[in-house]
Amino acid sequence: MSELRENCGLFAVYDDPEAASLVPLGLFALQHRGEESAGIVWSHEGVLSAHRGLGLVTEALPPARMSQVVAKIAVGHTRYATAGGSGLHNAQPFLASTAKGQVAVAHNGTLTNARKLRRELESGGAIFSSNSDTEVILHLVARAQAVSFVDRLKEALPQIEGAFSLVLLSGTTLVALRDPMGFRPLVLGERNGKYVVASETCALDLIEARVVREIEPGEMVIIDERGLRSERYASKLKVLPGETPRVAPCVFEHIYFARPDSNVFGRDVYLVRKALGRELGRLHPAEADIVIPVPDSGVPAAIGFSEQTKIPFDMIFTRSHYVGRSFIQPAQNIRNLSVRLKLAAASNVLKGKRVVVVDDSLVRGTTSKKIVALLRHAGAQQVHLRISAPPTISPCYYGIDMPTKAELIAANQDIAAIRDFIGADSVGYLDLPAMRRAVGYDNASQFCEACFSGQYPVPVADSQL
Ligand code: SF4
Q1: Whole-angstrom distance between the N-terminal and C-terminal Cα of the chain?
Q2: Could you identify the atom of ligand 1 that is nearest to the CA of residue 395?
Q3: Structurally, what CATH architecture does the domain formed by 5-244 represent?
């Protein structure tokens, strides 16, 4: 139901004869991180091949096709478009042949200096085949002078800025790394003694792999015939001697993006969301008869709100799981029915009730307005909207598809105006300290919270603002 989109999920398997079948399974568990395209690159005897397609993982990577692939190493990617468009030419992993061999890259995040780098590379003669910021990384690796793939990558990395969890493959060497601030998650797992890499732990659970550990911000994990080793790479981030580098994992992963059964940045997402709901109940209780979530992502926060306020929790909404992408942009004259395609409210339960409806974010406000209207139409006497996050006041430049500042309702309106626009009886948000308490950190230097504070941990070029 959200108006926000995570942009990518990554999954890789090393030294397993079932690699090409396991990668689509892992991506299936990461489907919430990208529904527009999916792809896989596999390595057989050191030669890389690719298959990419549009749509859901099961459409883009058909099991019958994947079961025929012979490979022990494979990297997969599922995506929404953020930087670049949504066509097949932007589907990842990208695979390129360079003078020093083939290289594949799969990226979760957004490079904040991609435009500048692309201009420089193009003026030096580079030809791009996509609109994606990720292709810049391939060009930088291709131009690096070092002999080994890992050393060429180390030459390229100090030139890029922003958010990047990456999985790269060349020959039989797999590299998984996070940017120095660790915006996006990436976790190392193990299955039958073989290594697996995934954006979220829920993908490891699906293939019965165990979590080894998170890959750390600024860490590069290299897996090859010699085994696994971990290295730190040089970056653009300047850290003075004796200074602790600041990290900026995305707090919105906990609020909305990650799957609730994942453990992200060392915290169980489901438990954090319940804690966000309890904080919300403390800050903005309401005189109401029932608490209901906007499914699915609002459910844990609504349970937490109910626990805190002792207002009974109920699942009033039935969510349709059969709305295909063809329905997402219906004709203009029936577009206002789009929420009804996805949600139906049990009017016999709602009639005459004072309702608290809990959602995880309020972006433009247009979806919430339709949900409130739907509840009133179904007979609710009062509707109190509660948001388990602080007001979203600034766009994300680190890998989340978010409207411009002019479109973000909380960036331009006060609470009373938002309430009136939405048509609710009251609206309540979390504040920053309550959000930090629920997630379990103390101050703004431990997480990225830029979309709530406007304080960007990595500078964003004027051209991108
Ligand atoms: S700006 Fe918001 S959505 Fe983007 S990385 Fe920071 S916290 Fe996450």
Answers
A1: 26
A2: 1
A3: 4-Layer Sandwich (3.60)
